[in-house]
Every structure is written in C-alpha cells, then in structure tokens.
C-alpha cells in the first residue's frame, strides 16, 4: 500500500539484451525525473505531441508499459474490461520483476476488490457500495467538522502551522477510521493512524512494510471485534452483507477502502488550500465563500488531481489502441491527470471548473465506487471551509514558488504547506 517515491535519477532503460527490455520501444520515456515531480503537465504535453494519445514508457528498473494520455482513450480502456482487465497476473513482464520492486504493492496480485474481475468484482464492490450508502452525509459533515475543530485547536494559538501533516493528512484518516468503527481517539487509534500514513506515504527512516503488517494485524483484530460486537459502522455492515465475505477478504478490502479514502482526499484538501491561497481569483472571498470553495475543489480535480497516474490495466489479448499495437499481457498506466487536460476536450485551452466530467475517480466498473466520491467531497469541503472560517486571515508562510511537490509520478501533493495567521486565543 506504500505510495512509492519517484525512482532515482540513475535508474535508466536497460540495454537491449536485458529481459526487461523485451517489448519496450526505443523511444520510450522513463517516468522519472524533476520534470514529473514539479511540472508534470509540461511532460504530458510533450509526450502527447511526440507520441499521441498512447506513449511508450518505462517504469522503475526499465520495465516497459504504456501511458494512456488521451481522455477518450482512458475512458475506452476503463470501459472495456473484456480487453483491458485488472488482474495483474496477466502481465507479460513478471519474469523480469524482482521481489523487492518498488511498485510491487500496486501490482502484486492480492485477493482484494482491486484485482477482482467480473462477477467476483461485482460481489466485492457491491458489499463496499452498500456499506458506504448507509453513511449519513450530514452526520459525516458534522463528524469532520468536529475533527477539524480539534486539529485546528492544536495549532490555532501559535499563529503558524504546517497544514499538510497537521491538518490535511490527519483529518480524512481520523474520519475514515471512525467510520470503520474504531474509537474516536486513544493510543491504539493514534498508532493505526500513524502506521497507515507510513504504509501509504513513507518518509525517510520509516519502515512501510512493518507498518503495513501492523495495519493488517489491526484490521484482523477489528474484523474479529466486529463479528463479536457489531455496530453502526462500515466494517459491521460489510460483515453482515449476504455476500458473506471471509475474514481474509474483509481485511484486504477494508485496507483498500481506508487507503483510497485517506491519501487522495488528503492531497485534494491540501491542493485546494494551495489554490485558494495562491490564486487571485479566490483571494477576495475565500473566507466563508462556499461557492468559491466548491469551484476550487472541482478545479483541483481537473488541474492538480491527487491521483495523477494509476497502474493499471493489463491487455487480455492483442489489440489496437490509439494507433498502437498492444500485446496480450501489456501493462497500461492510466494517465488520469493527462486525460483531464487533454486539448481534445478543452480545445480553447480553458478548463471549465463548473464541469465535473473529469476522470479523477477513474471510470467504468473499477471506478471509485458510488457514493465514495460524494463522501470524499463532504470530507474535503468540510475540512477546507472549517479551516477558512476558523482562520480567516490565513496566508502562505512562504512564497508560492517555494512550495515543493512530492517526488511521485503517482500522487500529486505537496511535501508541506506552511501558513501563518493571527493567533487565536482558546
């Protein structure tokens, strides 16, 4: 579940004799480097100009893949599971993949809803959907506001804060663990929150594998506790579903739900706050300006979507896509950020933030299950609005150009968002 950092600069395409080179094209582009980290949109434009809607790329260690850049092409791939499926065991590159490959947490097959297909995926996704549908969105907003108030209380008196760690990451994590039926606070829950952060977004010195093992152990205990003592929560509803998930299925699907809710939502919150604090179009009415907050949230999904690229889909058989010959077992990386800014859908170069037809929650049967996007919007919107209401004069503590994007080709998020404001006396 760890979100890997970008590969080191010395990683290069292997020589033609290397097994990993099989299937790679000579003009393939390595998905790495500062260009991706800070200005990925420029690189997407370059790839689109040189290769069209489908670009040959190499992943960590020189492993070949296809990056799907076009809006129409991403929509097609995600809508045709009979051609491009989710079970990664189809991959024709497995003989070249080392056990410690950095992207293994994303492509290594697990018996989870993420890799299930056909009726099995419908069964597993149906359980999650029904468990999420039972969440009262007004209660969720109240819960998130309560969490936000508590987090803000922790730094409001100081007049300064680093919002990425102290607010944007913490709020959705605490909200989702509470929805899953864990205590609102306490050492055990705090430990889980920390381990989930490490397993999803490891910093230097962290051990994401050990953290993930602890997360699994905690989920196993949660499933056991909820079988014995069910409650009004996601876990209990999944356990009582007629589909009859096993404990193993419950654990991996719960981790999927929590991971999908935390990292993307945290970056959505932070990227939106960055937009509100740096763009003059929002400067006059961000405080309490609910319409502006809604516009900013949607614009971020178009222009700085938290999930830039998603790995992936695997070709079921030889086929053609965007003028390219895709071989059976080839890996396709979904370029969600590139698709959202495809000039074919925005011919005037103007992104319309009022339009919500972005692909930030993917598309097709394996898209983020309903009503998860609506719940994520409640969490993100409540977080941003509460912060602006409590700290109406909040400003960046650094120049906008000093903000650094996290070195990842997968997630779009800042390493830190330092702000200052008038201290609030509690």
Plain-language structure description:
There is one protein chain. The chain has 426 residues and is an alpha+beta fold. The chain has a single domain, classed as Cytochrome P450 (Cytochrome p450, Orthogonal Bundle). It is 46% helix and 10% strand. The chain has helices spanning 34-38, 40-51, 71-79, 104-107, 118-133, 137-153, 163-168, 170-179, 187-200, 208-228, 234-239, 247-278, 280-283, 290-303, 336-340, 372-390, and strands at residues 29-30, 54-59, 63-68, 84-85, 160-162, 309-315, 319-321, 324-326, 331-335, 395-396, 418-420. It has a six-stranded mixed sheet. β7 and β8 form a beta hairpin. α6 (137-153) packs parallel to α16 (372-390) and α8 packs antiparallel against α12. The radius of gyration is 21 Å and the shape is globular. The two termini are 38 Å apart. Residues 1-24 have low confidence and may be disordered.
Brief characterization of the structure:
By secondary structure, the chain is α+β, with helices and mostly antiparallel strands. The chain has 16 helices and eleven strands. α8 packs across α9, α12 crosses α14 and α12 packs across α16.
Structural key phrases:
six-stranded mixed beta sheet, heme binding, alpha+beta, three-stranded antiparallel beta sheet, Cytochrome p450, about 45% helix, 11 strands, Cytochrome P450, about 425 residues
């Amino acid at each position: 579940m760890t979100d890997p950092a970008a590969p080191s600069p010395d990683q290069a395409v292997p020589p033609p004799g290397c097994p990993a080179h099989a299937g790679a094209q000579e003009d393939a582009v390595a998905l790495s480097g500062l260009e991706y980290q800070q200005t990925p949109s420029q690189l997407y434009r370059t790839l689109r100009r040189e290769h069209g809607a489908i670009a040959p790329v190499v992943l960590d260690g020189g492993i070949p893949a296809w990056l799907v850049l076009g809006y129409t092409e991403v929509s097609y791939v995600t809508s045709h599971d009979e051609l491009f499926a989710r079970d990664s065991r189809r991959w024709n590159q497995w003989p070249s993949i080392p056990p410690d490959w950095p992207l293994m947490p994303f492509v290594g097959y697990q018996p989870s809803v993420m890799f299930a297909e056909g009726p099995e995926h419908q069964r597993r996704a149906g359980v999650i959907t029904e468990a999420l549908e039972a969440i009262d969105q007004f209660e969720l907003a109240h819960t998130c506001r309560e969490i936000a108030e508590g987090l803000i209380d922790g730094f409001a008196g100081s007049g300064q804060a680093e919002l990425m760690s102290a607010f944007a990451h913490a709020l959705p994590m605490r909200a989702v663990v509470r929805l899953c039926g864990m205590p609102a606070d306490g050492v055990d829950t705090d430990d889980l929150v920390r381990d989930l952060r490490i397993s999803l977004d490891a910093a230097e010195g962290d051990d994401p594998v050990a953290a993930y093992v602890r997360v699994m152990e905690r989920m196993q205990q949660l499933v056991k506790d909820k079988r014995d003592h069910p409650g009004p929560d996601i876990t209990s509803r999944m356990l009582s579903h007629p589909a009859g998930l096993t404990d193993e299925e419950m654990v991996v699907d719960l981790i999927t739900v929590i991971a999908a809710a935390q990292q993307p939502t945290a970056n959505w919150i932070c990227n939106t706050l960055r937009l509100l604090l740096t763009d003059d179009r929002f400067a006059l009415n961000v405080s309490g300006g609910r319409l502006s907050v809604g516009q900013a949230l949607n614009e971020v999904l178009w222009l700085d979507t938290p999930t830039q690229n998603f790995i992936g889909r695997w070709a079921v058989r030889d086929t053609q896509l965007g003028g390219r010959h895709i071989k059976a077992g080839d890996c396709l990386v979904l370029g969600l950020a590139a698709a959202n800014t495809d000039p074919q859908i925005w011919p005037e170069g103007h992104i319309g933030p009022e339009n919500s037809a972005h692909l930030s929650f993917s598309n097709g049967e394996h898209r983020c299950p309903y009503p998860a996007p609506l719940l994520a919007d409640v969490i993100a919107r409540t977080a941003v609005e509460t912060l602006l209401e409590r700290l109406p004069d909040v400003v960046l503590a650094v120049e906008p150009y000093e903000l650094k994007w996290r070195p990842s080709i997968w997630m779009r998020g800042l390493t830190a968002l330092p702000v200052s404001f008038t201290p609030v006396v509690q």
